[in-house]
Amino acid sequence: MSVQSPDSSAFSAAFKRAAVLYHPKIEASEPLAREIAAALNQAGCDAWLALTWDQDLILPRMDETGLIIVLGGDGSLLRAARMSAAHPIPLLGVNMGRVGFLTEVSPDTWQEKLPRVLAGDYWLEDRLMIEATAWRGDEKLGEHLALNDVVISRGALARVVRLRTEIDNNYLTTYVADGLIVSTPTGSTAYAMAAGGPILPPELRNILVLPIAPHLTLDRAIVLSEGAEVTVRLKTDHTAILTVDGQTAVEMQNGDHVCVTTSSHKSRFIRLGKRTYFYDALIERLAPKRDR
After folding, report:
1. What DSSP element (H or E) covers 15?
2. Cα–Cα distance between 37 and 165 in angstroms, integer?
3. 251 neighbors 105 (Cβ within 8 angstroms)
4. 3-state secondary structure of 250
5. 256 catalytic, yes or no?
């Protein structure tokens, strides 16, 4: 594939430096990342490359970076969104995964679409993020940022956990279930959808609470307003797991609790299509062509 340089005369001053992140387990991603970086450099944008998982290399360079191009699937973009959230830097996803709800271009279309990005011919989509703080008594176990979801669930044993749940310090219910999902609108098309939850458009700023396989307890999803705080207190006789975006796992014990609320950070995605793209993407991925 030959490299076609974007028109440098149309180059956006906002993108003086760009990161091109590629997936360590997708063989085709590194050579494509190098092609994209070469095109950026030819356009006058200083591009640097890194593995998406190389957080120690990426984080120190966030302050000097105006654009992040991520090669991979939605998981790669989730990882990049968390690393860049404090800034926030616009993300452009190149889909090399299976689903690609968050990606914007494909390996076959980046050459025609990258010049539009550098020329400023795009719109920015801001997406809500949530943060979870895990506690063991008065000891803070950790703070975690999520773009998709925070899940408190049973561990390896197929036994339910009891999850006393409060909304803004008011008791809601105690779920007896395999777990509980606290999701953003972005995460509503991930684990929450698989668990039977509603699909929320990405521009909404709500928090979704949804039990996983509840047993003789509240089995409906609850949609909360932005800023609500969800506190989940764990009762279990075995190890449970706190999972963030399906990528970070923390072991939880009986009596531990997790507080989840809206983050002050947000993720920003570069979009080149129409603003109703989400519904087209949803149907494309969920409805077989024979059903249309």
Report:
1. none
2. 47
3. no
4. strand
5. no
What digits encode the pLDDT tens for the residues 122-138? 999 999 999 999 999 99
Q: Which residue has the tokens 């509240």?
A: 218
Cβ 175 vs Cβ 232: under 8 Å: no
Catalytic residue from among 74, 149, 245, 256: 74
Q: Using CA atoms of 188, 193, 199, 205 in order, give the dihedral in degrees to the nearest 10.
A: -20
DSSP result, 11-33: --GGGSEEEEEE-TT-TTHHHHH
Please list, in sequence order, all residues whose beta carbon lies within 8 angstroms of the beta carbon of residue 25, skipping any fewer than 6 positions away.
none
**Nearest to 178, CA basis, from 148, 210, 204:** 210
Q: Hey, what CATH topology would domain 129-264 get?
A: Tumour Suppressor Smad4 (2.60.200)
**Parallel, antiparallel or unpaired: strands 91-95 and 67-72:** parallel
Where does the chain have alpha helices with state H? Answer: 29-42, 55-58, 74-84, 110-118, 191-194, 277-286
Residue 166 has phi, psi (to 5 degrees) of -120, 145
How far is the C-alpha of 18 from the C-alpha of 40, rounded, in Å?
8
10 Å CB burial of residue 194 (0-12, 13-18, 19+) is exposed
Each domain of the chain, given as residue ranges in start order, spans 8-121, 129-264
Question: What's the predicted TM-score (pTM) here?
Answer: 0.91
- The domain covering 8-121 belongs, at the CATH homologous superfamily level, to Probable inorganic polyphosphate/atp-NAD kinase; domain 1 (3.40.50.10330)
User: Which amino acid does the sequence have at 43?
Assistant: A
- The predicted-structure confidence for 77-129, as pLDDT tens digits, reads as follows 999 999 999 988 999 999 997 777 899 999 999 999 999 999 999 999 999 99
Domains 8-121 and 129-264 share a fold: no
> In which residue are the tokens 């059903």 written?
291
Contact 102, 127 (CB under 8 A): no
Task: Please report, for residues 2, 117, 270, the alpha-carbon distance to residue 39 in angstroms, rounded to integers and kept in the order given.
Answer: 10, 12, 18
